[in-house]
Write a structure and sequence with these properties.
Strand content: 35-45%
Number of helices: 27
Distance between the termini: 84 Å
Radius of gyration: 43 Å
Shape: globular
């Protein structure tokens, strides 16, 4: 009987199986979470609980089951439980003729990550009341359609009566907004736009819904057509009013609402650009605005609605749209109708004669569809509806059967986090609310939902300063929470007390915790997350014994300095199996009864015998092979008294010999043996008979007579050969004593060296591939003798040395082909646990830094691509630097670039830096296809280091392959090489398992949220197998459609099936609208098999994301379009594609089994649908694809065909064509600042043909014939994002020729040219951006100006006499408290934030209620072909206030010079530079300047006084190379010294190795500068406090320790306040209290680094109350706009970066719009830019203040 006793074991087994199979192991998630409180624990996962038992000593945060099992009392376990309660439920009555649902009300509470399911019933009757409203386009082109509709009124009523007995019918008409440019505004056209027509209008409800058909027909007869100008109509306004004006239209609550939309034109939509011209910028408020006559009244003040708005409102009011459109506009509405879950689309004849038939068909189609939507859902909750009864359609609705009660499964899920923020940290409205689950034809279900984010009750009952915590902490939830400076369970330990470290010091040591940990409360807390262990952290878990280079033989783990072996293994290094399986002999016994089994090996009793095999059996084949040799010495000594055993040792022989005159023939005996006797050079013979195993009484027969040769010259040659070595030794001794040259040469020999030696520890390793868990081997290298000093050893490894010439042949094939090069470097920084965890912020930050710097170095290698697969690790047994970080990465480069890469890598490692990335000298590894080279370093006192050599494990390897590791030389150090060579033999045995996917393609529903991909293993030899997996983008994008994953998949013995899980992300609304209904797919690749595993076919799978029916339909279409039935041929194997140029790809494969007649190749651009694929036919297993696009990703696959048809297609292969030079840049644009200054900008080339890496701008003087005068000046813009250049000091009234060309990986493209004379262009004294990231060129500078950097943050000023902000020529007008545009003007501007006169100054007036874009932002727009509208010239009170506030002087005193607006550095040499500045603004006469400079990290202060006020530059000599200096410049007047401008600069140059302060003559020199902190962002918190945030400097000078923030009144009047912010974060924040209202404050932020303080970032801000509504917040993660904050005070941003995500609209992509800090910013905004920006707001359906659209 099984009995109850077996149940616990069964439960335990199930628990173990679940913990292995479930990804992530939920129990571990609670355990591993670093939580500090009960509330944090509860929020980690839905299964987490917390133990509040005071006596509980284990981890308090765990699952409820594990806490109880660990001894926590049940009443002390705190768990938050979810709930689902039905609050209203009325059963469905199928006898009623109306739509019904059940239940009608729910109350749900869920924990984060938890989900609940419930059944939802919906009933749609066979016949239901119908309301039909016809909405018709009344533009002039629809006149014949109106006539036909008038004639068909009776037919329409007749059709309705056949559909349902209870119906109403109504009619409305629309044209467009009565404004420019939609309508002709001439008075006569406003009265009658066309002959016999009505005046223009937007929308009018003509006939409300009525059941009186006669009244409907009579009213319809009196309607006349109207008209407008542009082709698109304003139908969206009409649809919205029809939906929201329920009472005016007459919609009945329980009827089916049908809206027929009839037109032959396209449509206007929100922010499509027309309203920008019309000045209508307010968003539609979604309210009813019909007057008593049914006419829409707000057409002049509100924009059209957006598509998502219409979708939402029509669903809310149960309205089903039917689009009846002509062929002319069908394409517009074909895409539009798919956004509505239930809708219909029909082609209307030109005269609408088929509208009745179209309505009848649409009605039957619509009534069979039902859509169920979750409206008003909070962000933290997700709802999904599925059904087993009904199928989903393409639009997401259900195909239902009316008259039946449909049952649906509703899944309600609470998410854990949104964009990395835990759901409990979101706003209240994002956590709870009321979800309206609404079917198409009824009101639906109201759900009161919420996420459980409550604080643990025990935290609300804490004992403050509890006695149980020694009054040094609070007792809460069963334990003490200690105050700062105290620790321990009862807060009895001071973390700063030195006496507490004594218990942590091991006897005989002076460092606490052996230097591997920290002493806390008398107890060591070890570093390294488990690397160091022991009471004193004395054990290093990287230093356990190894076997064949593997730690603990890879059969155990290292703990407390010893190997803890896996079950079934033992021994010091886990190299002994406990099983006797390897000791079983051929008879099934152990060691044949002649020995014992130990450590998996037989130890035989007779160890002397050479004929005993590994299981102590007699090896007869070995006997025969070695018998003659073994008997030789005994025969020789017994028969002739000669040989090595002559004398007494001859008695030890175990047999006797017998001399005979004649021996038997060889075929008659076991062995016939003959040997030469060395004593007399004669040959003797003997035979062995019997079983060949001579015993004590055996006799060997020996021929009595020897066979002796005659005497020859050998008799004297042998003594001569013995004498020659003696003579050579004497000569060597003589040379060593008297010849210095020979002495030096002999010193190189190991035997003669008196120094130290390095060499490999072993000379041979034998590895079995099926036991290998890694693709590399740590090969120990030893240093003996004197261990002082450093030695660096270069090494190399060669693959497949058993195949001579293999590596040379591989390298000679196609030298331009791209191959991966593995690169490993040791960084000059310690390794942390987070660095070895991909996805952590620290890891991502370092990866970006590494890749940027290495890409900068390796881009000089022709054809090299950017780095990929960058990871970090530690290298054990690496001497004193084993705690440093090792970076492993992969570089794609041509095969011919190997030597260039090697030389470049060695050079940079020797210098200790790759660009700005510091590396440790003495270590690198560069791995090519068949060999690798590297270097290791022995630091002083280090005896052993590991050489990590790659093993080049490939599927095509020989069954036994050889690798050779060679120590090449010692470039640094005095050591000599000892053991130079290591042979590695890798034996490939039969695969233990073949791992593959079940099929090459899988389908995953986005609603399931997880794609599950099975991976199978066919077991050949039961053991464990391991493969790597990773996802790869296709049409689906990582982190947008799914979460990318990569990792290892381990099959334990006996396992044949595993499941990969990839999390799918919900489709955002903007993606659904703009990326179309394209099927999204991604790939999963298997690679790197280990433990003897092999990859089978398919080892790559494609996962298709979408609803099942959608995918099936796509696959069916593909099947129908493919040729006839497939034959018995298999799929072609190993498809391989390689780019053969910028427009060619070579595609080849291996033929499948069978006899194919040919092959059919499909290829298409990656991301396109496969239905657009090109087809090629080939008779051979390869093809060349031509006429391709440059630098474009293509996908391809191939199938074979024979007499019976096509076989299956191969797996997909991707390949990218090479780059081609780009086309010329887009048009050149000139922003003329003055007759000598212009801002040149250009557009990206239309065909980039690769990645643009730089631009070259050339400009120079030309004569009247446009021919160059003198050389052209060249400027390299190496940041392709900066397509702008400010050029100063041009010659006045002289024409210049400007050219711009672009460069990518293939080279420079053609030029774009323009010739312009600035004097002939209109002058625009507007605000010009001068941002440090944008180069500024001095046209008068000579070659000295080729290397320059500039500090600037101000704008070019208006004339000195002007006291108003620098804006455009035309006056801005404020009417009724808002900004209006003035027409036409070539540069009307909207000045949203006016510039104060301070350097970084920004000031906001409380009367301006527009949203702030950036500091001193000026929005300009050119308007053409518009009539100028005159406004009153008198400024309103609001504008006067704005001007006066903006004009306030921020300087300390009148007459004192302002800050010099620019500081420009020009390098003249490695130790000298030119400092230039712009004259500051001053009301008095300038007397001169002061220039101060000193080293950034301190030192002597140098001061230069300049008495000539006209001199605005100075040359500074004798600077130190590679040292950062800070320069300060200020002006002087009679009133005193003004404010200073500060800049930090470094001249980088090569220096002499022995003298770092002496630059090498003739070496290159460049300028660099540490950057300031990122843009300052201010957020008002209250009338007297704000929050300040900024980003990390892009190029800090040294490691950042923190920041220094200074706050002072902008106009003076008070002392400055300084704040210190410690730490290095990507974004830092500071809350500043104690401010005053309506007072401008200046803030300065500078980084504090290990080298000193960096440059400052400044900003001026004023907190002012808002009479109107608050400003909406810009720059949120969700897009361009964010909901406005509630309250009296607004968020005010002076410097700002908008969302870095691209703005998407209508299938177009608009690049990330970055508005940088640094003074005023000018944008020439085209209609397209305004349109796209505003369309984004509508697409995202975000409520934004109407004031934004005013602007």
């Amino acid at each position: 009987m099984a009995g109850p006793c077996s149940c616990p074991w069964v439960k335990l087994l199930l628990a173990v199986m679940l913990s292995v199979s479930l990804p992530g192991n939920m129990a571990n998630r609670c355990k591993k979470a670093q939580v500090k409180s009960c509330t944090e624990c509860i929020r980690v996962d839905k299964s987490c609980a917390y133990c509040t038992d005071e006596l509980f000593k284990e981890r308090r945060c765990n699952t409820q089951e594990e806490l109880l099992a660990a001894g926590c009392r049940r009443e002390s376990v705190l768990v938050m439980e979810s709930s689902l309660e039905i609050t209203e439920e009325t059963r469905i009555d199928t006898t009623l003729h109306r739509s019904q649902v059940s239940p009608q009300g729910l109350h749900v509470r869920l924990r984060p990550g938890e989900e609940q399911h419930f059944a939802f019933e919906v009933f749609e009757p066979l016949e239901s009341p119908v309301d039909l409203y016809i909405l018709m386009d009344f533009s002039n082109s629809m006149s014949d359609d109106l006539d036909n509709l008038k004639q068909m009124g009776q037919n329409l009523a007749k059709i309705l009566s056949q559909l349902t007995s209870d119906y109403t019918i109504g009619f409305g008409k629309f044209v467009d907004k009565v404004s420019v440019p939609q309508t002709d505004m001439r008075p006569e056209k406003l009265k009658e736009p066309w002959p016999n027509s009505d005046p223009p209008f937007s929308f009018k409800n003509v006939i409300s819904l009525t059941n009186d058909v006669t009244e409907f027909w009579n009213k319809l007869q009196g309607e006349r057509i109207s008209g407008n100008l542009d082709a698109p109509e304003g139908g969206f306004d009409a649809i919205l009013q029809t939906a929201v004006c329920t009472r005016a239209i007459g919609w009945r609550p329980d009827s089916t609402h049908l809206l027929v939309f009839s037109t032959e034109s396209a449509f206007h939509y929100e922010a499509d650009g027309v309203n920008v011209l019309a000045g209508i910028m307010n968003r539609n408020d979604e309210k009813c605005h019909l007057d008593a006559t049914g006419t829409y009244t707000q057409y002049k003040t509100q924009d059209y609605p957006s598509v998502p708005t219409l979708v939402r409102l029509l669903a809310k009011h149960n309205i089903i749209p039917i689009f009846a459109v002509t062929n002319y506009s069908y394409s517009y509405y074909e895409k539009l109708h798919t956004y509505f879950p239930v809708s219909s689309l029909g082609v209307l004849q030109e005269d609408s004669s088929n509208i009745v038939d179209l309505l009848e068909e649409a009605f039957y189609r619509i009534r069979s569809n039902l859509d169920i939507r979750a409206l008003d859902s909070p962000r933290g909750l997700r709802t999904e509806v599925t059904s087993k009864m009904f199928q989903k359609t393409e639009t997401g609705s259900f195909s239902i059967r009316r008259g039946e009660v449909g049952t649906y499964d509703v899944q309600l899920r609470a998410v854990e986090d949104i964009d990395g923020t835990h759901v409990c940290q979101l706003a209240e409205e994002d956590q709870r609310g009321s979800i309206h689950l609404k079917p198409s034809f009824s009101n639906g279900l109201q759900m009161d939902v919420g996420i459980i984010c409550d604080v643990c009750p025990c935290e609300l009952q804490k004992e403050v300063r509890s006695a149980r915590c020694h009054y040094r902490g609070d007792f809460m939830c069963g334990h003490c929470v200690c105050n700062e400076g105290w620790s321990g369970k009862t807060c009895n330990c001071s973390t700063g007390s030195l006496s507490d470290t004594q218990p942590c010091i091991r006897e005989g040591e002076d460092k606490p915790c052996s230097g591997h940990g920290e002493c806390q409360c008398g107890r060591c807390v070890c570093y390294g997350e488990g690397r160091y262990e022991g009471h004193f952290c004395e054990y290093d878990n990287f230093q356990c014994p190894r076997t064949s280079g593997f730690l603990c033989n890879d059969r155990g783990r290292c703990s407390m300095g010893q190997c803890v072996c896996e079950p079934g293994w033992t021994g010091r290094s886990c190299d002994c199996p406990l099983s006797n399986a390897t000791c079983v002999d051929s008879n099934g016994g152990i060691c044949n009864g002649r020995g014992f089994c130990e450590c998996g090996r037989c130890h035989c009793n007779n160890q002397q015998s050479l004929y005993i095999d590994t299981t102590c059996e007699i090896n007869y084949s070995a006997i025969r092979l070695g018998l003659c040799e073994d008997l030789r010495s005994c025969v020789q000594c017994q028969a002739w008294g000669t040989g090595e055993k002559k004398g007494r040792t001859c008695e030890e022989c175990s047999f006797k010999v017998k001399m005979v005159d004649e021996l038997k023939k060889a075929e008659e005996v076991v062995e016939y043996c003959s040997f030469r006797d060395e004593d007399d050079d004669c040959t003797y013979s003997y035979t062995v008979e019997g079983d060949g195993s001579p015993g004590p009484n055996s006799t060997v027969l020996v021929h009595r007579k020897k066979d002796c040769p005659p005497h020859t010259f050998w008799s004297w040659l042998i003594p001569l050969l013995i004498f020659l070595p003696l003579l050579l030794a004497l000569l060597l001794l003589f040379c060593c004593k008297y010849c210095a040259c020979c002495k030096a040469c002999l010193g190189l020999l190991p035997c003669c060296s008196r120094g130290h030696m390095v060499g490999f520890k072993e000379d041979h390793y034998m590895l079995r591939e099926n036991l290998m868990a890694s693709d590399h081997l740590d090969t120990p290298m030893l240093r003996s003798g004197n261990l002082k000093g450093r030695d660096m050893v270069r090494w190399k490894i060669t693959n497949n040395v058993q195949r001579p010439g293999f590596a040379t042949h591989a390298a000679s094939t196609n030298p331009t082909e791209l191959v991966p090069y593995g690169l490993s470097l040791r960084l000059a920084r310690l390794c942390t646990e987070n660095l070895m965890k991909p996805g952590t912020r620290e890891c991502d930050q370092l990866r970006q830094e590494v890749e940027e710097n290495l890409n900068e170095v390796y881009r000089q290698v022709n054809g090299a691509h950017k780095l990929q697969q960058t990871k970090f690790r530690q290298q054990p047994n690496a001497g004193k630097k084993q705690d440093h970080t090792i970076v492993d990465t992969v570089l794609m480069a041509p095969r011919s670039a190997k030597q260039t890469l090697l030389k470049l890598t060695e050079k940079q490692v020797e210098q200790g830096a790759f660009h700005e990335l510091k590396v440790a000298p003495g270590y690198y590894t560069l791995t090519a296809e068949q060999d690798a080279r590297g270097m290791v370093e022995f630091q002083e006192g280090v005896e052993l280091v590991d050489v990590r050599v790659p093993l080049f494990i490939r599927p095509e390897d020989d069954d036994e392959k050889q690798l050779l590791v060679e120590a090449i030389d010692v470039p640094v150090g005095t050591a000599t090489l000892g053991r130079r060579l290591v042979n590695i033999t890798i034996i490939k045995e039969q695969a233990s398992g073949v791992v593959s996917f079940e099929q090459p393609e899988y389908t995953a529903s986005r609603g399931e949220q997880v794609a599950r991909i099975p991976v199978i293993r066919h077991i050949l030899d039961n053991g464990k197998s391991q493969v790597s997996y990773r996802t790869q983008d296709n049409t689906a994008q990582g982190n947008r459609d799914y979460v990318p994953v990569e990792g290892e998949l381990l099959f334990h013995p006996g396992e044949t099936w595993k499941e990969l899980q990839v999390k799918l992300l919900e489709l955002q609304e903007v993606d659904a609208l703009l990326r179309g209904r394209q099927i999204r797919r991604f790939h999963v690749q298997l690679s790197n098999p280990k433990f003897g595993a092999r990859l089978g076919q398919p080892n790559s799978a494609t996962v298709i994301i979408g609803e099942q029916d959608e995918v099936d339909r796509s696959l069916i279409n593909q099947t129908l379009s493919s040729p006839p039935p497939r034959g018995d041929l298999g799929a072609p194997q190993n498809p391989n594609a390689k780019a053969a140029g910028s427009r060619k790809i070579h595609f080849n494969w291996l033929p499948p089994p069978g006899k194919p007649m040919g092959y059919r190749v499909k290829y298409w651009i990656q991301g396109d649908s496969e239905s657009e694929a090109h087809l090629l036919d080939s008779k051979v297993p390869s093809v060349e694809l031509t006429n391709l696009y440059p630098y474009c990703d293509y996908e391809m696959k191939v199938c074979a065909y024979g007499a019976q048809g096509e076989g299956p297609y191969s797996s997909l292969v991707s390949c990218r064509t090479h780059q081609e030079v780009p086309s010329e840049p887009g048009r050149l644009a000139f922003n003329v600042v003055s007759s000598t200054v212009t801002q040149l900008s250009w557009a990206e080339p239309a065909e980039t043909n690769g990645e643009i890496t730089a631009y070259e701008v050339c400009y120079g003087l030309v004569n009247e014939d446009n021919r160059p005068i003198g050389p052209m000046k060249k400027v390299l813009v190496d940041n392709p994002k900066n397509r702008m250049l400010l050029i100063e000091n041009l010659r006045e009234s002289q024409p210049y020729r400007y050219t711009v060309k672009a460069r990518n990986g293939a080279g420079w493209g053609p030029e774009r040219e323009a010739i312009i004379n600035l004097a002939t262009q209109p002058k625009r004294p507007m605000s010009i951006p001068i941002i440090p990231d944008i180069p500024i060129v001095d046209a008068q500078g000579g070659e000295d100006y080729e290397s320059f950097l500039m500090y600037s943050d101000d704008v070019l000023r208006s004339p000195a006499s002007s006291q108003r902000p620098s804006v455009s020529d035309d006056t801005e007008h404020l009417v009724n408290g808002r900004m209006d545009f003035a027409y036409p003007g070539s540069a009307n501007s909207l000045h949203r934030m006016t510039a104060a006169t301070a350097a970084y100054g920004t000031h906001l007036s409380p009367q301006l209620s527009h949203r702030v874009l950036s500091s001193s932002s000026t929005l300009t727009r050119d308007y053409h072909s518009l009539t100028r509208t005159d406004h009153s010239a008198a400024l309103t009170r609001d504008y006067s206030t704005l001007t006066s506030l903006s004009s306030q002087d921020s300087r300390g005193a009148v007459g004192v010079p302002d800050t010099p607006t620019r500081l420009v550095f020009s390098a003249l040499g490695p130790t000298s530079l030119k400092v230039s500045w712009q004259e500051p603004q001053c009301d008095r006469v300038l007397l001169g300047y002061s220039v101060e400079y000193q080293l950034l990290n301190g030192g002597e202060l140098h001061r230069l006084n300049i008495s000539n006020p006209g001199q605005t530059s100075v040359v500074v000599e004798d600077l130190l190379p590679n040292h950062s200096y800070v320069f300060r410049v200020r002006g002087q007047s009679q009133e005193g010294w003004g404010r200073e401008r500060e800049g930090v600069i470094t001249i980088e140059s090569q220096v002499h190795p022995q003298s770092p302060l002496c630059p090498l003559p003739g070496s290159a020199f460049t300028l660099s500068t540490p950057s300031a902190p990122g843009p300052l962002v201010f957020t008002a918190l209250s009338p007297d406090s704000l929050q300040l945030s900024w980003e990390r400097p892009r190029r800090p000078n040294g490691d950042i320790l923190g920041y220094l923030v200074t706050c002072e009144m902008a106009q003076g009047g008070g002392p400055a306040t300084t704040f210190r912010v410690d730490g290095d974060n990507l974004e830092s924040r500071l809350t500043v209290p104690g401010l005053s209202e309506n007072v401008p404050y200046k803030f300065k932020v500078q980084a504090r680094t290990t080298e000193g303080f960096g440059p400052e970032r400044e900003g001026i801000i004023t907190i002012e109350s808002q009479d109107g509504g608050p400003f909406p917040q810009l720059g949120s993660h969700s897009g361009l706009f964010q909901n406005p904050l509630q309250g009296e005070y607004s968020s005010i941003t002076t410097t700002h970066t908008s969302s870095t995500e691209p703005f998407l609209m209508d299938g177009l992509t608009l690049g990330s719009q970055r508005l940088e800090a640094g003074g005023s910013l000018t944008r020439h905004v085209t209609q397209e830019f305004v349109s796209r920006t505003l369309t984004t707001s509508g697409t995202l359906n975000t409520q934004v203040d109407q004031q934004f659209f005013h602007t």
